[in-house]
């Protein structure tokens, strides 16, 4: 059986293979690598790739909850918990006080709430990147919040780390796991036993975080 995969060439020294959440396979190879060399590496990992792309718990799509509406009584996921929405008249800004106080003028514009969530992601996730990088003894060029479709985080060949803004909906121990996971790639590019030992040492709740993402990751994918 043929295995479909996408090849991306980048300025890096090693070749890596990634299975995305949509089951697609991406091979990132050093510039100048021949397609035949890529094919040989993929062939050598074919059994592992078939196992990964058919992993029911991690990759089978879970039913998505109905889209959320910004109405009083609705609840939204934030830092691992559901918080109630309350529409208010006397404000122009979204506020959080163990519930979401949403101006009625914003209620019909979900994109404004998404902007608010992205700002909270920058505020709460990026400082964790700095802390964990210091603890791991690694340096990155830039850390930023992005809108990746299939990844919670990524570490680029240029040593930038990017995190999906939707992570702000997850508990902090999950955020910490994703942050440490990407920073660990600055030490070990592939998912070797050494890599996982590094991650687990810095994020001891790694297995709990992975299970949370497997169970509830689909809920994070909603825009609000």
UniProtKB/TrEMBL annotation:
Domain annotation YgjP-like metallopeptidase: ranges: 13-215
Alphabetized Pfam families for the sequence: YgjP-like (PF01863)
Gene3D superfamilies the record matches: Metalloproteases ('zincins'), catalytic domain
PANTHER family: UNCHARACTERIZED PROTEIN YGJP (PTHR30399), UTP PYROPHOSPHATASE (PTHR30399:SF1)
Protein name: M48 family metallopeptidase
Organism expressing this protein natively: Niveibacterium microcysteis
């Amino acid at each position: 059986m043929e295995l479909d995969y996408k090849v991306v060439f980048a300025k890096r020294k090693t070749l890596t293979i990634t299975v995305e959440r949509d089951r697609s396979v991406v091979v990132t190879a050093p510039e100048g690598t021949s397609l035949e060399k890529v094919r040989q590496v993929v062939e050598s990992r074919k059994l592992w790739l078939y196992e990964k792309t058919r992993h029911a718990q991690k990759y089978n799509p879970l039913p998505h909850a109905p889209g959320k509406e910004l109405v009083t009584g609705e609840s939204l996921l934030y830092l691992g918990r559901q918080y109630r929405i309350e529409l208010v008249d006397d404000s122009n800004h979204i506020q959080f006080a163990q519930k979401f106080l949403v101006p009625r003028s914003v209620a019909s514009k979900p994109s404004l709430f998404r902007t608010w969530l992205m700002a909270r992601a920058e505020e709460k996730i990026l400082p964790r990147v700095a802390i964990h990088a210091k603890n791991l003894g690694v340096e990155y060029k830039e850390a930023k919040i992005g809108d990746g479709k299939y990844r919670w985080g990524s570490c680029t060949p240029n040593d930038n780390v990017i995190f999906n803004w939707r992570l702000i909906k997850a508990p902090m121990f999950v955020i910490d796991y994703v942050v440490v996971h990407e920073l660990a790639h600055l030490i070990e590019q592939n998912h070797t036993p050494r890599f996982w030992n590094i991650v687990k040492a810095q994020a001891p709740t790694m297995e709990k975080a992975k299970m949370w993402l497997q169970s509830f990751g689909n809920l994070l994918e909603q825009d609000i």
